[in-house]
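Please, structure for the following, as tokens.
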Amino acid sequence: MSDDEPGPGGSGLVGFSDDVLDLAESVPPGRVITYGGIAAALGRGGPRHVGRVMALEGAAVCWWRVVRADGTLPEHLASRAREQYLAEGTPLRGRLDAPLRVDVARARWIPDPGEPPDPDTSRADP
């Protein structure tokens, strides 16, 4: 399977991207989902595919709510994310003056598999 075909049957990156962004936008304030959590919820792709979508198109959604499995974000996003986490009351680990890490065990959001993302949380068109 190539990077352009995330998931069984080659579902295509375009539809996959929309699904990733819709799910990312559905994460409630103060909660997070991992890259792998999004892939698992969608039943296709993997953490790297989700990371690629978020890197290329994630600015239109609440990108700080999608984290690595260890609760970190890429270093260049950490300071902007910190402001959002503090404003939303997202559980964090360690000291506030240390590298940022979300307490994934406490903040993890798991989407209801039978419920589609909320249509009222539409993202801005780029």
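The CA atoms of residues 5 and 12 lie 5 Å apart. The first helix runs from residue 13 to 26.
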